[in-house]
Amino acid sequence: MFSNITSIFQNLRTDPGGTIIYLIMFTAGILFSLIIHECAHGYVALKCGDPTAKMMGRLTLDPRKHLDPIGTICMLFLRIGWAKPVPINPNNFRNYRRDYILVSLAGIFANLLVFLLSTVITVLIYKYAEARWLSYVFQFFLMLAQMNLSLAIFNLLPVPPLDGYRFLDHFIFKGNLSMNRQTMQIIQIVFLVVCISGLLNGLLSTVNSNVFNAVFRFVFRIL
Predict the structure, then answer these.
(1) How many Å apart are CA 40 and CA 140, to the nearest integer?
(2) Cα dihedral sign for 144, 200, 153, 160?
(3) What are the structural domain ranges in the chain?
(4) pTM over 0.85
(5) How many other C-beta atoms can be found within 10 angstroms of the C-beta atom of residue 120?
(6) Annotated catalytic sites, by residue?
(7) In this prediction, what percent of the chain has a pLDDT beyond 90?
């Protein structure tokens, strides 16, 4: 974490303009990606019969309704993070188990969709655009693609409160993977420490790079 912070300050000294542009694009990408992720959860929950997120004002693009301070800081400096979970009431679902699984995966699918669309745009700009100013657009969509893929893969981890845990609980264990509140809090604290320590960075970076490169090469060939 501290190495990333140091790197940002060093870049500000050597290339202040470029670093500021990068930070603006990265911040915009974080806000968009996290908001889309959470809105997808709330929207699918609404379609499944639960209006809780809508009634609590979470089906909005307003960042203030979604951002978790620690999760956002981790995303900025560690490239992995999270937003405030969308409130849902599974008792409102029309089909409890099916709808819980759909809602759990909605954010991941939203990020994967943004990843694919951003990759297509990136490839099109790389192959066919000649205007110099489009280099900034290229950088933004490349960053957005990598960011959304990272969010999707990170949220697949079967650790509470991530989506992968909810999916594992209801798809594999049929809702029986229950833990008491204290155990959940301990696991979340340990997981947060692991994230901050950077222990996951190597593994996630390898997975992200391999998946991104494979998809990028495939899209490049077909366009």
Answers:
(1) 22
(2) negative
(3) 2-222
(4) yes
(5) 16
(6) 38
(7) 45
